[in-house]
Amino acid sequence: MAAVLKQGGVISVPTDTVYGVCCIMNSREAQEHLRDIKHRPADKAFPVMCADEAQIRTIAEVDARAEKLIRAFLPGPVTLILKKRAEVPAYVNGGMATLAVRMAPEAAVKDLILAAGCPLFMTSANLSGQPTAKTLDEIERDCPDLDGMMKGEPSYGRASTIIDCSGDEVKILRPGPVSMEQIQQALSGN
């Protein structure tokens, strides 16, 4: 599957939360292919899935607060909104100052990212604005132009908690498996 990604392909993968579709982050053409498959508006950036904390640090600024959340919840059902590093190309996130970042929770997805040689744009397997596909058959129906599918099952079956760490206050942008109470405990060190 890594060879498909390196050639600009888009594949579906099971993540810890839901089925995702992904492509390599370092190709604008691959990003456009993913956008076409999802029918996703050009002004909506894709989340980025990294193999580990070191890879997150190559694309995003990780301050002490973000580091506490990474250590507490990643890998896991959390997406962190972090400030983008200046050297990351503008096309990656539509020129915004932030990135939505996850860490691969399963060995198979982590190995795929490492074999692809860069983080992956990773988004739920569905057409933009539609319910997330829950089976491989639904993915094939909703995203017929995929270049491959990795077998496996998501473990939570529910989208990740999106935590915005880019401003003065940490806030939840989308509720999910991790609560604000858990986030506050992680930040206070209790």
List key phrases describing it.
alpha/beta; nine-stranded mixed sheet; 7 helices; 9 strands
Describe the structure.
It is a single chain. This protein is α/β, with parallel strands linked by helices and 190 residues long. It is 31% helix and 21% strand. It has helices at 2-6, 28-38, 53-59, 64-73, 107-116, 136-142, 180-188; strands at residues 11-14, 19-24, 48-50, 78-83, 98-103, 120-124, 148-149, 161-164, 171-174. It starts with a helix and ends with a helix.
- Cα-based radius of gyration, to the nearest Å: 16 Å
The termini sit apart by 41 Å
Q: Could you give the order of strands across the largest sheet?
A: 7-1-2-6-3-5-4-8-9
Count of alpha and pi helical runs? 7
Going by helix content, strand content and strand pairing, the class is: alpha/beta
Write a concise synopsis of the structure shown.
With 190 residues, this protein is of the alpha/beta class. The protein has helices spanning 2-6, 28-38, 53-59, 64-73, 107-116, 136-142, 180-188, and strands at residues 11-14, 19-24, 48-50, 78-83, 98-103, 120-124, 148-149, 161-164, 171-174.
